[in-house]
Amino acid sequence: MSFIVYSLTTLAFTGLVPGRSYNAYVTAYSGINSQTSDIVTKRSYPTSVRDFSCFTYSSENVSCSWSLPDGVWSMLYLRVINSSNLMQAVSIFNDNFTVITMYSLNEIIMDPHGNGRTNLTFAMLGRLKPNTEYLVNITTYSGDLPSQTLQGKAQTDISAPPPVPETVNITTVQNQVTPSSLTISFSCSWFQNTNGDLKSYTVIVKQSEETSSESPEKRWPLSTYSEYANGSTNVYQVDDRVYPSECSNSNSVVSVKIGTGRTSGSFSDGPLKQNTAYRISFRVYTYLPNARSVRAGGVAIYTDTRFSLPLMTLVGGIGSSGSIVGPVVGGVLGALVIIVGGVLLYIRREQLNCFKRPDSTLQTSTRKWDDLPAIPSDMKKDVCDASYKAGNEYVIPDDSTYEDLDNCTPQVDHHSGIPSKTGEDDAKTEGSSDPTYLVPDNPYLIVK
Prior knowledge:
Elements (H helix, E strand, L loop, with lengths): L20 E4 L2 E4 L2 E4 L3 E4 L6 E7 L5 E6 L7 E8 L2 E9 L5 E5 L4 E4 L10 E4 L7 E10 L2 E2 L3 E6 L26 E6 L12 E8 L17 H5 L5 E3 L3 E2 L10 E6 L4 E2 L2 E2 L8 E11 L3 H5 L5 E4 L6 E2 L9 H32 L46 E5 L4 E4 L10 H5 L21
Antiparallel strand pairs: 1-4, 2-3, 5-6, 6-11, 7-8, 7-12, 8-9, 9-10, 12-13, 12-14, 15-19, 16-17, 16-18, 16-22, 20-21, 22-23, 22-24, 25-26
């Protein structure tokens, strides 16, 4: 009797390509004899896709993208789930780039081939409910072997526009109107987010002096500034702007400038015409399609305000803006000050000339002692001018002062307050006819 003992041996293979099929067999050798076991075919597990993410595309679509998995794979399998319900299944096959989409109604759609691309790296998941959150699972298959499942999340857009605002009063911001621009007050309370988040807004400009109550044409997008500039329309859309972050508070008021010259894509916020009436409307979106959605036929969802009453730009030139008025007014006031100062200086000069002695005429003084102001009693020494000679010119003796004004008695003393005279000055004394020796206008000289 012989016994055959079998021992179980485990062998792990490493460094294999993910998802590839391998044949394995065992060969036993005994001397020169060998025996080969049966061939076993096995496949390594595939890897998951990389960089998987999903995002909102429209009110009925969610788009997902990824990077292709490493190794060998035969199919990518996407499942769209709302709560616990399977809404949609998408299979993307690697052999002939065919995409098969199966909806929950068991409807199968064959999408076109990959148009020469190595493999698809995105999928548009459609026929979904608006304003609904969906989970999207993606699994890589290589033959019958699945990879680890990855999960993304996205919510479809709302399909309803914002409620129509009840009361809107579009006005300009004070002192911020120029010949080429208007700054408008935009109130965040005009639009409510009850039908979905407010995604962005635009300004619609209409050159018109009408005062009728009307809304812009329900067309998206509207004409551009270039079409307005060449005269083909009087209504244009400035651009599509992100909804102002200041509107996190519904009571906020935001200043929006029109005519900045800013360019955004095919739209331009070009300068306005001076001294021209414009009417303004604000358009706010709950859904604004991106370029890919536009190519797929997506349209924007929005609500407009009625056009404002006509708002006028300024006339060019002085006074056209607050930045010009200030310097102009300041310059005018400065000129007036200079003119008035010059006139006062001229008058003062003429008054001073009246005290000068004419060259050939001797005048008799009309000033009387009684007309002179009273002399304080505590003044110890004063000068009395006894004569008014040579055309209203006072001549002061160089060798005496007068202490007693009642008698004008001369007192021998030197004038400590008057510079000493030279020999030439002695000739210019009382009775001198030299007109060059003039005394100060004040008839009194205070001396020590």
